[in-house]
């Protein structure tokens, strides 16, 4: 099999013997193109992340409320992070925390069936025929996807599509059909960055770095670049090398068979750091995909509902066996704290990703990647899988007009309204506020991403407080 390197798409590549690696956006390369007379434009990107099972929401009178409640204390720009959100304190001016949003058609859906409609707002229901609709990311992908090699990057920890009301993917096409998610970092890496012939594939199979055969072309290209672009290229190659190392480490965790309930000790070969390494690697795949402009749209479902699958073992990163189980043990001594520690871990890794985008400059000094990237991080459950008052964080997008550093507290003085009290099922409890449609946020996001969307699903306005 012969690879025609000259037949690759318009993007610039480093080229070796049978191998090509996508380059990041470089000012010098852009100015050498056919549209050199036009001022270069920074791409606008969107990434959405989902975690299941809700968040810790102890009642106000509970001793755990002060430190371990997920939602901050206060409102507007006068708020204080609890320990659950403390990893995001250094990024306070780059994010907004939101409460009091949910999808009206899904407020009665059981909390084990929520991920399907997080980005669609569809009435997927708990019973009866299943029907979904297009997801937020795919609306944007239809608008922008033809400008990149991949219209979108769809990822999850568990992979595939899962089942209706037990999805393994956040992304749904125009017909409401689930788009399979990829969960193997090596496959994502090779798909995004490496085009190879059979010999190159064999070299990669024996762990030879994809960069080894590209360094000569890199040195040649470097001579033609500005000093700023030389630094960008060096930084990018270091990131790719680091990602390769992370991929190799993360493969071990995914290949390890899941233990049965009664054979937990058989998982001794998993170190506590491996789930954390895996999560970091998946975030790194999105960073590199955005850095190379291979795509401008990404979703990552960190875990699925029901406590089934690979993702339930991510809690091992902080010393617990099963993530889902933590959400059911909040009535036990220390239960709220344990659940919050796991959420703290997820927030820390999300914060690490946000900080990396913030630290990475766009070409020609037009702000950071974070300024041109809009990030939605959240869940479609709150306390004990209650399908109301979604815990949400919006980050980035300052060059799109978003203003951060605030807690948009739509839940009023009691964001814990409807919190689990141990006596009634969540849907039987009184709710102290009326949620706003989350689709209002979707409309706001799409319009700032230059999509002419007047409405999405059941939206009835915009979230003007954020722009």
From TrEMBL:
The keyword Signal applies. Residues 1-32 form the signal peptide. It comes from the Bacteria. Keywords: Signal. InterPro entries: DUF1552, TAT_signal. The keyword Signal applies. Pfam families: HXXSHH. This is Secreted protein containing DUF1552.
């Amino acid at each position: 099999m012969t690879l025609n390197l000259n037949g690759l798409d318009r993007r610039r590549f480093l080229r070796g013997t049978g191998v090509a690696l996508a380059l990041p956006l470089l000012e010098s390369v852009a100015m050498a193109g056919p549209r050199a007379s036009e001022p270069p434009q920074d791409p606008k990107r969107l990434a959405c992340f989902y975690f299941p099972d809700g968040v810790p929401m102890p009642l106000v009178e509970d001793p755990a409320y002060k430190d371990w409640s997920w939602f901050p204390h206060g409102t507007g720009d006068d708020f204080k992070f609890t320990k659950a959100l403390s990893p995001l304190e250094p990024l306070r001016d780059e994010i907004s925390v939101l409460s009091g949003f949910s999808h009206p058609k899904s407020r009665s859906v059981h909390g084990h069936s929520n991920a399907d409609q997080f980005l669609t707002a569809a009435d997927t229901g708990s019973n009866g025929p299943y029907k979904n609709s297009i997801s937020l990311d795919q609306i944007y992908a239809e608008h922008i996807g033809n400008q990149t090699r991949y219209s979108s990057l769809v990822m999850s920890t568990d992979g595939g599509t899962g089942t209706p009301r037990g999805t393994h993917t956040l992304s749904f096409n125009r017909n409401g059909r689930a788009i399979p998610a990829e969960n193997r970092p090596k496959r994502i890496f090779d798909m995004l960055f490496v085009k190879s012939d059979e010999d190159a594939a064999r070299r990669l199979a024996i762990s030879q770095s994809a960069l080894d055969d590209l360094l000569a072309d890199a040195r040649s290209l470097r001579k033609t670049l500005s000093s700023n672009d030389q630094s960008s290229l060096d930084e990018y190659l270091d990131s790719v090398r680091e990602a390769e190392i992370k991929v190799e480490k993360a493969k071990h965790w995914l290949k390890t068979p899941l233990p049965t309930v009664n054979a937990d000790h058989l998982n001794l070969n998993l170190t506590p750091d491996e789930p954390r390494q895996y999560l970091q690697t998946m975030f790194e795949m999105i960073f590199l995909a955005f850095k190379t402009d291979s795509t401008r749209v990404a979703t990552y479902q960190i875990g699925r509902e029901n406590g089934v699958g690979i993702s339930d073992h991510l809690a091992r990163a902080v010393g617990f066996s099963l993530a889902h189980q933590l959400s059911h043990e909040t009535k036990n001594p220390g239960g709220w704290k344990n659940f919050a520690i796991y959420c703290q871990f997820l927030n820390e890794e999300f914060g690490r990703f946000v900080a990396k985008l913030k630290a990475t400059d766009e070409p020609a000094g037009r702000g950071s990647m974070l300024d041109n990237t809009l990030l939605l991080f959240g869940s479609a459950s709150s306390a004990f899988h209650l399908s109301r008052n979604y815990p949400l964080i919006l980050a980035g997008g300052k060059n799109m007009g978003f203003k951060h550093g605030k807690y948009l507290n739509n839940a009023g003085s009691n964001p814990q309204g409807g919190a689990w009290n141990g006596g009634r099922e969540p849907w039987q409890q009184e709710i102290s506020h009326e949620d706003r449609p989350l689709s209002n946020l979707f409309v706001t996001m799409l319009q700032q991403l230059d999509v002419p969307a007047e409405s999405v699903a059941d939206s009835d306005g915009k979230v003007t407080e954020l722009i």
